[in-house]
Amino acid sequence: MNIIEIIIKKRDGKELADDEIAALIAEYTAGTIPDYQMASLLMAVFKNGMSDRETASLTGAMMRSGHILDLRPVGYTVDKHSTGGVGDKTTLIVVPLAASLGLKVPTMFGRGLGHTGGTRDKLESIPGFRTVLSEPEIIGQLNTVGAVMIGTSEEIAPADRKLYALRDVTGTVESIPLITASILSKKCAEGTDALVLDVKTGSGAFMKDRAGSDKLARLLVSIAKLMGKKARAVLSSMDQPLGQAVGNTLEVIESIDVLRGNGPADVRELSLILCAHMLALAGTVRTFKEGLRLAARNLDDGSALRKLTEIVSVQEGDVSFIEQPEKFVRAPIMSDVVLPSRGYISGMDTYEIGMAANLLGAGRMQLTDAVDPAAGIVVHKKIGERVSPGEPVFTIFTHRKHCIDTAVQKLIAAVRVSKKRVTPPPLVSKTIS
To answer: pTM score, two decimals?
Structure first.
């Protein structure tokens, strides 16, 4: 393979052959292609795109770059995946909820990076919780408990890990074919049979506009099917944080509240929608509405909360924190954030809210950064709600006294206020199947 010829070919807008893509990924993973040449190719893809065939070929090559879980002893499996946002804690609710309804749910997730939170960081804020399991442990837990919640490992799609790090420093993160291959290579290597995709759109999403989010959702569904998976996608709003809690411990506490039948209405609604789609893909229900009804029943009668407690127990977490969430350690510095103006909240820069949470210690800019599980933000007011001078819009929690002023300035600048009430954006704008 001549890497220079491949770069020129893609630079000129031509399609790469399957064997070229396979060799490219194999050699880059092995370290025989240097980062500067791969960076050049990534920029050519960013500029010229990829066909569906090329994207499917890239997804398959990245999937095959490492170990592929064999979940056939488990039977039919269904998972969900979010493209990432601020306050997005639905995995902690949907996975035990779906498992309480008889589905087998193997879910694999990463850490937070940039303005988005990571499910792995949230679960690891539960003392003792293991996010690394062996393949026999995974299969055994799926057969006995019905769900397993694990972090991505070095053996799963190592090509994606190298490519993502390179995309992050070369301005090529937003490429729709590259996003698609990154997501699906890991999910296909995970071995799941069906996948519900929560594609975020808005100021706190990687795809800011609905046209781009729609394009990404359609490509994800299309490539998943080419990879032999059933798939369905929903477009959900990230024009404001999901729920009220932003930050690892805060989001776990809010998730437990939702599993108790309480919590913010938007978190509950989106969790029910995602679970209903999982039930429909698995053929457990005949209609989406039936799925919604069953999901709401198991959320309200405590079945889903009991399943989360079982998952945490089997994965060696301290279940007393699920039963008594007040045991979670709170950050010692707490401060309310108020706005100087009166009116109605008309918009939020969710990206900046996520970055403010990072400043307080809730997230990381590099994978090696440490995370403070107790740091974060509680959102008291959202789009369409009235706010008065001196009335708290946010409350911040942190150990970092020196970062408070900058975080507060970011939060104040992230909120727009108008004299007239505006209608909040719809939580889910479209379903693609």
So the answer is: 0.94
Pairing of strands 105-109, 147-151: parallel
Question: Among all residues, which ones are annotated catalytic?
Answer: 81, 160, 167, 182, 186
Find the radius of gyration of the CA atoms of the chain: 21
Phi-psi region of 263 (alpha: psi -120 to 50; beta: other; left: phi over 0): left
Q: In what order do the strands lie in the sheet with 428-432?
A: 78-82, 194-201, 230-237, 428-432
Residue type, 217: A
- Domains of the chain (ranges, CATH numbers): 3-49 (1.20.970.10), 72-323 (3.40.1030.10), 329-418 (3.90.1170.30)
Q: Is 406 exposed, middle or buried (0-12, 13-18, 19+ CB in 10 A)?
A: middle
Cα 3 from Cα 160, distance rounded (Å): 19
Q: Which residues contact 164 (CB under 8 A, 6 or more apart)?
A: 182
What's the CA gap between 158 and 166, in Å, rounded? 13
Half-sphere exposure of 226 (CA within 13 A, CB side): 20
What are 258's two structure tokens? 């939702």
- Please state, in angstroms and rounded to a whole number, the distance separating the CA atoms of residues 98 and 276: 8
Rounded CA separation 139/70 (Å):
9
Each residue's pLDDT, cut to its tens digit, for the chain (433 residues) gives 799 999 999 999 999 999 999 999 999 999 999 999 999 999 999 999 999 999 999 999 999 999 999 999 999 999 999 998 999 999 999 999 999 999 999 999 877 666 777 899 999 999 999 999 999 999 999 999 999 999 888 899 999 989 988 997 898 988 999 999 999 999 999 999 999 999 999 999 988 899 999 999 999 999 999 999 999 999 999 999 999 999 999 999 999 999 999 999 999 999 999 999 999 999 999 999 999 999 999 999 999 999 999 999 999 999 999 999 999 998 999 999 999 889 999 999 999 999 999 999 998 766 667 889 999 999 999 999 999 988 999 999 999 999 999 999 999 999 999 999 999 999 999 999 8
